[in-house]
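Quick log. Single chain, no ligands specified.
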Amino acid sequence: MASDPDPVFLITGASTGIGAATARQAAEAGYRLVLGARSQDKLAALAEELGGGERALALPCDVTEWEDQEALVTQALDAYGRIDVVFANAGFGAPRGFQESTPDHWKAMVLTNVYGAALTIRATMDALKESRGHLLITGSVAGRRALPGSLYSATKWAVTAMGEAARQELNDTGVRVTLIEPGMVDTPFFESRPSIEALQAEDIARAVMYAVQQPPHVDVNEMLIRPTAQPG
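-> predicted structure:
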């Protein structure tokens, strides 16, 4: 077990977008990183950029597989001895319309966005209680208002409820819980570039780090972050 005192920040969906931007800012703040994703090439390059094995682990993780989530936590604890912050960030979207996309795509999205986030909470809860750490979950502005024909929006409504359910369960354990709710972000999440000046992944990463860096008695439960030009 490593004796390095630096805290440990675990991120799912870490290979691109908000996950990767948060990893970079967390590394700058002195955290050791545990990076989980399915895209191993990008993940390995990011871990190498952030210091390699002593500072950043790149671990394969399909968040819809319980065994992968258990292994992510086990390897994090074996390497670093602790987990202080968990960012359940893995997720993806689908076209609006209940006759759009495919049933298989829908199934994968629901499993990733909802079941996968729940598995991350389950897998990391004991370690977070031990460290009196911080759980963050990526929701969305789409989880605060229904969008026409959007099953994605329904998954993020589920995540909104999950964040509050986790906060209530973890109350009095010292673990803080934050729901991060981005509006339009210019990341690979979107197939085409946004028509307005969208947020950048780094903007959301700064919000994550703001919540994490508050004093232990301050729990920022929700952060809804829209581009200035986004109307709804």
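The mean pLDDT is 91.
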